[in-house]
Design brief:
By secondary structure, this protein is of the alpha/beta class. The protein has five domains: about 55 residues, no CATH class; about 140 residues, Calcium-transporting ATPase, cytoplasmic transduction domain A, CATH 2.70.150; about 260 residues, Calcium-transporting ATPase, transmembrane domain, CATH 1.20.1110.10; about 150 residues, Rossmann fold, CATH 3.40.50; about 180 residues, Calcium-transporting ATPase, cytoplasmic domain N, CATH 3.40.1110.10. About 50% of the residues lie in helices and about 15% in strands. It has 41 helices and 26 strands. The longest helix has about 45 residues. It is elongated and about 120 Å long. The relative contact order is 0.09. The N terminus and C terminus are likely disordered. GO terms for molecular function: ATP binding; ATP hydrolysis activity; calmodulin binding; metal ion binding; P-type calcium transporter activity. It catalyses: Ca(2+)(in) + ATP + H2O = Ca(2+)(out) + ADP + phosphate + H(+). This is Calcium-transporting ATPase. It is an enzyme of class 7 (translocase). It holds the Pfam family Cation_ATPase.
């Protein structure tokens, strides 16, 4: 383990909540209250609310949705009737409405339409009995309770046509014109369009149509260009978010068709399907329980009450959208889509994908500050220019005075005042960075799309950012660090090791019969024997599949064994007790209770063991030690150890009533055997763990397996050094940690690297301790019981393959391939989001500072500014939308994983960024002001007419300014690295935007001069413009040798709203 990775991060990370009186632009990374969200909205300076708040949570709509949910829950039948009535008048009713067609139904199915509707709607037990219970209903629906419906696609399509598809109507996708309309609502652009309209009408009235339309027309064109580019960018983002939301909704469920368990999309379910249910699943449609063991359903999503409802033959009705809280079973689908209350509710609730992130809100704070400065500057420029204009101090290009009181006409004077107003408003457009907060959504949309390719589905936007700050990852072992491809490789049966592990011929028949009975009946998996002699298919969890496959090797006939005994009661596997049991009736007088679970825990409950000849021997201390040593040896070989035990039970001790409340005996058991299951480490995990160590992110393993197995896998993965494997508290058992005092837990939490035999509650305790110590904690989990830890963690990572729906809903990111290397990729992307935003901020602030200072100095000193309204709008386009597209979509680099985690309170503008910004801005201001005031002499334009020389000089200043930004865009890519060109060709969008900007700049000056009020430049001036811009490259290189202070620059000012952790400062100071 790299030194220092276990140290606590600074206390600055510890503050989660934003307290009253603190900065309004700080919100928690998870579960922010509506009060926090309202406060920053009220504090923000906004010129285009519809665009600025597009990707934020609509608080009013959220309240409306909650009210609507309550109405739907209490008036579900009325709402459904209203919805169907509303849809009846639409032409595309057939596409959406899933109402049952009477005439088609009566031809194909012998089911009474009204009764089926009432059964789904009212959960009427009388009707249920009338149709013959679940068996009768399945016959009417032409389904089989064991084999399901036929998998034939034509049959499934017929059922969808008659009973409807398991989908519900969605809101139509917003067209690009919606985004164009939103972009038009920007207050500054509206003012500019009004000014352009006045300028256009007055210009054509005074100078004629041929020449008078240029000033107003060029502003109109520039405004429409800004609107078009902005709307196109926003539209593309919207499409990306919609695609990601579709992926979130597309839940994969198990379904039995033709006797085989298949995995299908929830949208593909049809009436008549048989669906297995297990703990953590979402009930995918309305249905009737076929069978269930301890099946408990959380119906809070439908009823609004946090109440767990037990389901059995007396209460068999299941509602779509609810969650399985405990147990397992199977259901017959009787209602889908809009014919379910869930579908009807989802159809009526408008989908709101808005969610502001902490970084987005902090950027609103930055935009607020810049905007206030920009507005002040624009106001000052407006006042100065108007004073100079109306007092006769503003000159025309030919040297004449623009306005003379009593001489200049009203129209001409008004035109001059409008031109000055246009310039001032355009300065506001440049100065107020409306696009800055939206750059977060741009980089998040880009990152989320790319993360999908890296097998990570983001459920909450804020998790992308928070992952960049993660200081520790608490990872599961099975399926995350290992491949989850389990096979039995070692077995002890009858008190001795089987060699080979699948040869049971030396065992007495009674021993193997008991073992096979326990394997076949005490399982949630199944074995499908193909009727055509094809390959046998085993389904279930990886552990169940490994044990069932081994059972087949030692002679198990799954179907035959299950038919010889009947299940009386099932106690599903419990992650707290690490075992699961089943009570069987073998004959009228013979009953067996089988247990399967963690080997060392089950061994402790055994008072006897079964020998090879079938005799029961007492479990003395010597034999107990032998079994314990066998288990420890397997654990050291990184094998998962599972034991099988049973006890015979007398018929008189079996309860005749309330079997579901029967507490199966857990002690005085007889040990049958122990198996060792191999689950190899995933390839690449060791390198991924090493990468985390380098990045200052400590990886901790939290597993339910025994400590020996956990240690062996941890050493294999590189989480533990071999020399640390035996030392405590590096390695600890969940029970030991659980029983410590809170103070002791906090004292050792940092040191824990491996926690074995942990329960979900132990994982939650560890997460809480680490958070109190100041860590930013990421947690992986797949089970329903992991939900509290996933919710409590700063970033909850659920597993896409092995994870339950409950775990996924509690998580922030779903790892689609369950691979730890994908978790590390998420860390890279999290850091990339933050880094890309910083690149864009550095670039935008440089343009802001340079443009504002140049215009203010020029306006105050000469009464005119070198950049006209159209040119400023073009600069705004380069700086805002195009700049964000170019810099916010930079792919992550390996260098990101060589830094320490980003502090959650770290300033957005670091000292390194301030240094780079000041160097570039001062250079641009100095050079361009020199050319603005003395350009005619320096550029040797004395022989030109006064008017033409002034136009060439202004055009040159504008051209040089734009090329400074183009070249500085490269510098912004690498704020801390000297080689700014590294990997530049990998970002094709960046190259395309730089190329397009250059081409448009050439076209603007060389071919659209009259339209943009520019003059053509000769090759020498072009070369000089490019050279001035190119100087920014060596300047940036040399500037990175300038040291920066350790203390953040913002901390010198009282209005500082962001704090940073000391470890980051020291590192940056050291670098510099």
């Amino acid at each position: 383990m790299a030194s220092g990775t276990g140290n606590s991060p600074p206390p600055a990370h510890e503050e989660e909540q934003v307290l009253e009186g603190e900065d309004a632009f700080e919100i928690p990374s998870k579960n922010a209250s509506h009060d926090h969200l309202r406060r920053w909205r009220q504090a923000a300076l906004v010129l285009n609310a519809s665009r600025r708040f597009r990707y934020t949570l609509d608080l009013e709509r959220e309240e409306e949705k909650e009210n609507l949910r309550r109405i739907i829950r209490s008036h579900a039948q009325v709402i459904r009737a209203v919805f169907l009535f509303k849809e009846a008048g639409q032409k595309n009713l057939g596409e959406y409405c899933t109402s049952i067609k009477d005439e088609t139904l009566s031809q194909r199915f012998s089911v009474d339409l009204k009764k089926l509707k009432m059964l789904n709607r009212d959960h009427d037990a009388v009707i249920f009995q009338e149709v013959g219970g679940v068996k009768g209903l399945s016959d009417l629906l032409k389904s089989d309770l064991d084999r399901g419906v036929s998998p034939d696609e034509n049959e499934l399509m017929r059922r969808r046509d008659i009973f409807g598809a398991n989908t519900y109507p969605r809101k139509e996708r917003r067209s690009i014109w919606h985004f164009v309309f939103e972009a038009c609502q920007d207050l500054t652009l509206v003012i500019l369009m009004v000014a352009a309209a006045i300028s256009l009408s007055l210009g054509m009235a005074t100078e004629g149509v041929k020449d008078g339309w240029y000033d107003g027309g060029s502003i109109f064109f520039a405004v429409f260009l800004v609107i078009f580019v902005t709307a196109t960018s926003d539209y593309r983002q919207s499409l990306q978010f919609q695609h990601l939301n579709e992926e979130k909704r597309n839940i994969q469920v198990e379904v039995i068709r033709g006797g085989k368990r298949l995995v299908a999309s929830i949208f593909d379910l049809v009436v008549g399907d048989v669906v297995p249910l297990k703990i953590g699943d979402q009930v995918p449609a309305d249905g009737i329980l076929i069978y269930g063991h301890f099946l408990a359903i959380d119906e809070s999503s439908m009823t609004g009450e946090s109440k767990i409802v037990n389901k059995d033959q007396r209460a068999p009705f299941l509602m779509s959208g609810c969650k399985v809280a405990d147990g397992y079973g199977s259901m017959l689908v009787t209602g889908v889509g809009i014919n379910t209350e869930w579908g009807m509710m989802m159809a009526n609730l408008s989908e709101d994908t808005g969610e502001e992130t902490p970084l987005q809100v902090r950027l609103n704070g930055v935009a607020n500050l810049i905007g206030i400065v920009g507005l002040s500057v624009a106001g000052a420029v407006l006042v100065v220019l108007w004073l100079r204009y109306f007092t006769g101090h503003t000159k025309n290009p030919d040297g004449t005075t623009q306005f003379l009181a009593g001489t200049t006409g009203v129209k001409q004077g008004f035109m001059g005042a409008i031109r000055i107003l246009t310039i001032a408003v355009t300065i506001v457009v440049v100065a107020v960075p409306e696009g800055l907060p939206l750059a977060v959504t741009l980089t998040l949309a880009y990152s989320m799309r790319k993360m999908m390719r890296d097998k990570a589905l983001v459920r909450r936007l804020s998790s992308c950012e928070t992952m960049g700050s993660a200081t520790t990852i608490c990872s599961d072992k099975t399926g995350t660090l290992t491949m989850n491809k389990m096979t039995v490789v070692e077995a002890y049966l009858g008190g001795k090791k089987m060699d080979p592990y699948d040869n049971a011929s030396t065992m007495c028949t009674s021993v193997t019969d008991l073992l096979i009975e326990g394997i076949a009946q005490n399982t949630t998996g199944t074995v499908f024997m193909a009727e055509d002699g094809g390959a046998t298919e085993v389904t279930g969890s990886p552990t169940e599949k490994a044990i069932l496959s081994w059972g087949l090797m030692i002679g198990m006939d799954f179907k035959d064994v299950r038919s010889k005994s009947s299940v009386l009661h099932v106690l599903p596997f419990n992650s707290e007790k690490k075992r699961g049991g089943v009570a069987l009736q073998v004959s009228d007088t013979e009953f067996h209770i089988h247990w399967k679970g963690a080997a060392e825990l089950l061994l402790a409950s055994c008072r006897s063991w079964l020998s090879t000849d079938g005799s029961v021997q007492p479990m003395n201390s010597i034999k107990h030690s032998e079994f314990k040593k066998s288990i420890d040896d397997m654990a050291v070989s990184s094998l998962r150890c599972v034991a099988f035990a049973y006890c015979p039970w007398e018929s008189k001790m079996v309860p005749t009533e309330s079997l579901d409340k029967w507490k199966l005996p857990e002690d005085d058991l007889t040990l049958i055997g122990v198996v060792g299951i191999k689950d190899p480490c995933r390839p690449g995990v060791r390198n991924a763990v090493q990468l985390c160590n380098t990045a200052g992110v400590k990886v901790r393993m939290v597993t339910g397996d025994n400590v020996g197995t956990a240690k062996a896998i941890a050493v294999e993965c590189g989480i533990l050094d071999a020399k640390d494997a035996a030392s405590e508290p590096n390695v600890i058992e969940g029970k030991v940690f659980r029983e410590m005092s809170e103070t002791a837990q906090e004292d050792i939490a940092d040191k824990i690297t491996v926690m074995g035999r942990s329960s979900p509650n132990d994982k939650l305790l560890l997460v809480q301790c680490l958070k109190r110590k100041g860590h930013v904690v990421a947690v992986t989990g797949d089970g329903t019981n992991d939900a509290p830890a996933l919710h409590e963690a700063d970033i909850g990572l659920s597993m896409g393959i092995s994870g339950t729906e409950v775990a996924k809903e509690s998580s922030d990111i779903i790892i689609l391939d369950d691979d730890f290397t994908s978790v590390v990729k998420v860390v890279r992307w999290g850091r990339s989001v933050y880094a890309n935003i910083q690149k864009f901020i550095q670039f935008q602030l440089t343009v802001n500072v340079a443009a504002l200072v140049i215009n203010v100095v020029a306006a105050v000193s000469s009464g005119d500014i070198p950049l006209n309204a159209v040119e400023l709008l073009w600069v705004n386009l380069i700086m805002d939308t195009l700049g964000a597209l170019a810099l916010a979509t930079e792919p992550p680099t390996d260098n990101l994983m060589k830094r320490r985690p980003v502090g959650r309170r770290e300033p957005l503008v670091t000292n390194v960024m301030w240094r780079n910004l000041f160097i570039q801005a001062l250079y641009q201001i100095a050079v361009l002001l020199i050319f603005n005031f003395d350009g005619k002499r320096i550029l040797r334009l004395q022989n030109e007419s006064w008017e033409h020389a002034g136009k060439i000089k202004n055009t040159f200043v504008f051209n040089a300014f734009v090329f400074c930004q183009i070249f500085n865009e490269f510098n912004a890519r690498k704020p801390e690295e000297k080689n700014v060109f590294k990997g530049v060709t990998n970002n094709q969008l960046f190259m395309a935007i730089v190329g397009a900007t250059t081409v448009l700049q050439i076209l603007m000056i060389e071919f659209l001069g009259k339209f943009f009020d520019t003059a053509k430049l000769n090759w020498r001036l072009w070369l000089l413009s490019v050279a001035i811009g190119a100087v920014s490259w060596p300047l940036a290189y040399l500037g990175k040798f300038v040291p920066v202070p350790v203390r953040p620059l913002q901390s010198y000012f009282k209005h500082c709203s962001c704090r940073r952790g000391p470890h980051r400062d020291e590192e940056q100071g050291g670098k510099s």
